[in-house]
Specification:
The structure is a single chain. The protein is mainly α. The chain has one domain. It is 74% helix and 0% strand. It is rod-shaped, with a radius of gyration of 26 Å. The model has no long low-confidence stretch (mean pLDDT 85).
């Protein structure tokens, strides 16, 4: 009879367990990419609202300058409302995306530290989030230009 201690087998030494851990890690990547696609849909919606609002504002401003209409205040207010709604939609999308990605990173860290998944693949910051913030700055500049008639959009 042998007096050696039995060796402890790592949970990832089993090929089935190893493959499951890798599939779970890839599922996190797919979820991250799905969150980016969701933010891109929010960007498209908010960009449409911002651009439509700005276009309505500028079109009625030109009609007023050409003396076709007397008052363009209601059109300006409607256009500004669309720009503000577009910015609010974008702010909500950015906040949701940041919250979701933080929760996903936390969950991935817990699973990685417990050895259930590999933490080898990078989880970089979202370039879609950077684009969303830049478009939000553009929307803010647009709304300031519409209200105060200053800036590059006058």
């Amino acid at each position: 009879m042998s007096t050696q201690d039995p060796t402890v087998v790592s949970p990832l030494s089993n090929p089935s367990t190893e493959l499951a851990a890798r599939r779970t890690g890839m599922a996190f990547q797919r979820t991250r990419l799905a969150a980016d696609r969701t933010l891109m849909a929010v960007i498209r919606t908010s960009l449409s609202l911002i651009s439509f609002g700005f276009t309505i504002h500028k079109a009625f401003e030109r009609l007023k300058d050409m003396k076709v209409i007397d008052h363009a205040a209601s059109a300006r207010n409607f256009g500004l409302s669309l720009v503000v709604i577009g910015m609010l939609v974008l702010i909500m999308g950015i906040i949701y995306h940041a919250w979701f990605m933080a929760a996903l990173r936390k969950q991935r860290g817990v699973l990685g530290s417990s050895g259930l998944i590999h933490g080898e693949t990078p989880f970089p910051p979202s370039m879609t989030l950077v684009a969303a913030v830049l478009i939000l700055v553009l929307g803010l500049a647009t709304s300031i230009s519409m209200v105060y008639h200053i800036g590059p959009y006058t």
